Structures are given as C-alpha cells and as structure tokens.
Amino acid sequence: MPHLGSLRCWFIIIQQTLEDCEMLSMRDIAGQRILITGASSGIGAALAQNLARQGARVIVSARRQDRLQSVVQNLQQEGLVAHMVPMDVRDPDQVTASVPQAAQIFGGLDILINNAGIAYFGEVSSISPTSLKDLIDTNIYGVIYTTQSAVSYLAESHGMVVNLSSTLSKRALPLLTLYAGTKSMVNALSDGLRVELRHYSIHVLNYCAPETETELHDNSLHDSNHPLPSPRRHRAAPDVVARHIIRAIRQERREVVANAGFVWMARLMPNVVDTIAYRRIMLPYWREPPHHSGS
Ligand SMILES: NC(=O)c1ccc[n+]([C@@H]2O[C@H](COP(=O)([O-])OP(=O)(O)OC[C@H]3O[C@@H](n4cnc5c(N)ncnc54)[C@H](OP(=O)(O)O)[C@@H]3O)[C@@H](O)[C@H]2O)c1
C-alpha cells in the first residue's frame, strides 16, 4: 500500500507540471476584453497589470478616479491597452450605466472580474447598521448588480465571470465573521450562477483568495471596541495572487481555494480550530458582555 504522503506528492507534481506546461490551458488571455471592478489598488490593480501585459484589453473600475487614472497611465506608458470607467458597485443606477459604457469601449466584454470588496473587523454583536449595510451592499449587491449588467455582453462572447471570494468563506474566523459571511454568499452565487449561465455558455470561476498584502486591512470598517490589529507579517503579494487567478482563468477552473490546508484542517478538526481561534483572536479582545438593548 503506497504511503498517502507520497501519493499526494505525486499528484501535486503531476498537476504542477501540467500547469507549468499549460497543457490544461483553454482560454487565451491575449485580446480578451476584461472589466475589473476594484482595480484602483491591491489585487485588482495587479490583475490589470498582469492581464494587460499578457495582451488583454482591460477596463479598470472603482470609485477613486485619481487612483484609476494612475493605473491606466502606467499601463499606457508601457504601450498596453487600458481604459477606466469609474463606478460605485453599491449603486445599481451607476452600475447599469457604467457596465454598458465599459462594453462599448472595445465593442463587447469577454471577462468580468468581480473584485471590488471591503472588510469588516469586529464582533457580530457590535456592528452598526451603517457598516453592515455598507459591507453587504459592496460585497454582495455589488457582485449581483455588476453581473446582471454584464450578462448580455458575456453571452455574446461566451465569456466568463470571475468572483473574488476568500479562504475565510470556507471557514469563518472570529471578528471577521461578517466579512466571511458575505464571501460565503459569493461562493453560493458562483455555484448557482455557473449552472444558470451555462445556458449562455458563460463560465464562472470562484477564486478564494488567501490573506494578501493590500489596502483591505487598513481600510477595513471596524467598531470602536476593536481597533484594527497589526496585519500578519506573512501575507501573499498581490502580484502572486493575480498571477494565480490568471492561471485559473486560462484553465477555466470552476473554483480555486488558496490556503486549502487551513480549510481541510478546519473540516477535519473543527473544535481544535475553534479553540485556537478563541485563544489567539478572541482572548486578547476580551471585554464585558453587551448590555441589554434599551437599558
Ligand atoms: N487582501 C486580502 O487579504 C484578501 C483576502 C481574500 C479576499 N480578498 C478580496 O479581494 C478583493 C480585492 O481586495 P484587495 O485585497 O485588493 O483590497 P483593496 O486594495 O482594498 O482593494 C479593494 C478594491 O475595491 C474597491 N472598492 C471598494 N468599495 C467599492 C465600491 N463601493 N465600488 C467600487 N469599488 C469599490 C476599492 O476601490 P475604491 O476605494 O477606489 O472604490 C479597491 O480598488 C476583495 O473582494 C477582497 O474581499 C482580499
């Protein structure tokens, strides 16, 4: 009976070799017309750069126009094809106006990357209604509005929707519970949409990203009881994550979960993960229980 560890090793070697040789590759990035939301920083900006360098025609979108402008300028200075269409994904009117505007630039759309997102750091019991609305509007409604507006264009090109989820969507950790919850909804949207959109030959990729060194942490919504902790030192570089996503796009994968080891550990030993998370994350934040509402 072969040792399980060596079988796993062989599986990884074969998979990596196939990926390196691009034998699993199906979609050519060159020439693709790609709309990326949340591309003014972090993973979105890294995706724009890497995709454009591989010959894609990219349209970057977000709220901060000055940041979008500099992403576009840097790409155009390299002789690459990039445009910007600012929009706030929380606003359905803006999205229904901006997505067709983006599609007009290159006469259609091949790939929509739903990357715009925000995080919330704090306990479920203390989130304010405003922060909760902002989190859900951006991470869930934003994905729905943008996808709805892009479907007719993607159907024409037999295109692709790429949704940015998180490893935490597979197993929530304390103080990031609500953020993880919004990303679990993204997973559910991806699973259902993949079958609904098969009708129009639109592929759906769900990418569960690892903890990445971006502005997400510093821009997190948080409550006054929980000041943001320092970010962990070992976070993935946005460029590495972007290249991993592009490989998954080329291979038309259905889902990629980065940091799958953590997810498996949480499935096999959920109580152990609970205890470690409680000790490492919750205990340092111990405080009095909330008061009865109204008292
Ligand atoms: N960093 C991580 O550890 C990590 C881990 C797993 C998953 N992710 C996911 O990866 C995606 C990208 O995040 P990131 O890490 O690259 O963080 P980031 O640098 O903060 O980027 C977030 C992007 O979303 C945009 N955005 C936020 N609210 C928006 C709105 N209402 N309308 C339009 N755009 C909006 C921001 O641009 P504007 O402010 O200019 O609008 C920005 O371009 C997110 O979906 C995030 O949840 C990140």
Verbal overview:
The chain has helices spanning 4-20, 42-53, 65-77, 92-106, 129-157, 177-196, 238-250, 260-268, 270-282; strands at 33-37, 57-61, 82-84, 111-114, 120-121, 160-166, 203-209, 221-222, 255-257. With 295 residues, it is of the alpha/beta class. Strand 6, helix 6 and strand 7 (203-209) form a beta-alpha-beta unit. The chain binds NADP nicotinamide-adenine-dinucleotide phosphate. The site of NADP nicotinamide-adenine-dinucleotide phosphate has 29 residues, from helix 2 and strand 6. NADP nicotinamide-adenine-dinucleotide phosphate (NAP) is lined by residues 37-44, 62-64, 67, 88-90, 115-118, 138, 164, 166, 209, 211-212, 214-216, 219.
